[in-house]
Amino acid sequence: MAVESAADTAAGTPPRAAHLRAGALLSVEDLVVRFRTDAGVVQAVSGVSFDVLPGETLGIVGESGCGKSTTGRAVLRLNRPSGGTITYAGERIDQASESRMRELRRSIQMIFQDPVASLNPRRPVKEIVVEGLAVAGAGAAERARTSARVLEQVGLGGDRFADLVPRQLSGGQAQRVAIARALALNPALLICDEPVSALDVSVQAQILNLIEDLKREFDLTVLFVAHDLGVVRAISDDVMVMYLGTVCEFGDADVVYARPAHPYTRALLDSVPLIDPTRGFAGPALEGDVPSPLAPPSGCPFRTRCPRARERCAAEVPAVRRIGPEQSVACHFPLVEPEPVRPRSEEPR
């Protein structure tokens, strides 16, 4: 994760040397994504940095419009980055040619938010799941074997589902087909863009368990985008909280949930319904609305809604800095006191 400690700043060390871990499968640094509209330039993602080690799951969470899906899509260059670097397995994705990107997308697959809309409505399931193999030039026999295998892996084996078209599937079944399509190409990195937000709670649990099982079976690295903090906590090793295109907080999922350092993270956690009535609202409550990405506030983008905002927040953009071995925050006045920083292990957990 992109962080900058006080010692790094004082010594003049470039931030990259301080925070990106060796051996990361995916490294994103200072990612910027802008969209030009008739009303002006939308600052969708502004200087986001993170890395993901092989076998890890990074959860990206935030309100609708915070830039989390745009960040995930930028990794695949479905949204063209306006700035920054994206490195996958040592190769610069942001500099790759279109032909090279088509090759790279075989090992970086995406599960989209709307399961039915992401599937070809005219093709049967058995053909949908091997569309990528067909594009890659695989023969009919290989496609048939792979189709049967991946459908079995996602719980849709046999002849019952193979000849159905997407409109004949439930939401959960359609999402399983989308997962099978991603697995058919044996990816190393799986990007999940809110894959359970449109599903019933019971079906959500089934899909999350399936993703976890497949992650262990195929040693997948996962980038999991969601607005539901409960879902992110259940599946993620690390979590990154975004607001208005920027990173608010990053760290080990258990640490961030147990002791959130950013007021926005605290507010998101307070918004999750609790079963235990004795656990009260930590607060304070947020006020106002999310600013327009066409004209983000000066300084800290969260300051217009932050109960702890002061003059410094309007004048200075907070750097993402370590406050603990497994936690960093972009806040001038965090909710928790910084701990002595020990070097984070460069080995996957």
Estimated radius of gyration? 21 Å
> What kind of sheet is the major sheet?
8 strands, mixed
Total number of distinct structural domains: 2
CATH level-1 class of the largest domain:
Alpha Beta
Unreliable residue stretches = 1-19
Distance between the termini: 15 Å
Number of helices: 14
Layout of secondary structure:
Blueprint: H1 6-11, H2 15-19, E1 26-37, E2 40-52, E3 57-61, H3 68-75, E4 83-88, E5 91-92, H4 98-104, E6 108-111, H5 125-128, H6 131-135, H7 140-153, H8 159-162, H9 171-183, E7 189-193, H10 201-218, E8 221-226, H11 229-235, E9 238-243, E10 246-252, H12 253-258, H13 263-270, H14 311-315, E11 321-324, E12 327-329
Parallel strand pairs: 3-8, 3-9, 6-7, 7-8
Antiparallel strand pairs: 1-2, 1-4, 4-5, 9-10, 10-12, 11-12
Helix pairs in contact: 7-9, 9-10
Explain the overall architecture.
- By secondary structure, the chain is of the alpha/beta class.
- It folds into two domains: 1-107 and 191-276 and 290-341, 3-Layer(aba) Sandwich (Rossmann fold), CATH 3.40.50; 115-186, no CATH class.
- The chain has 14 helices and twelve strands.
- The strands form two sheets. Strands 6-7-8-3-9-10-12-11 form an eight-stranded mixed β-sheet, sandwiched between helices. The chain has a four-stranded antiparallel β-sheet with strand order 2-1-4-5, with helices on one face.
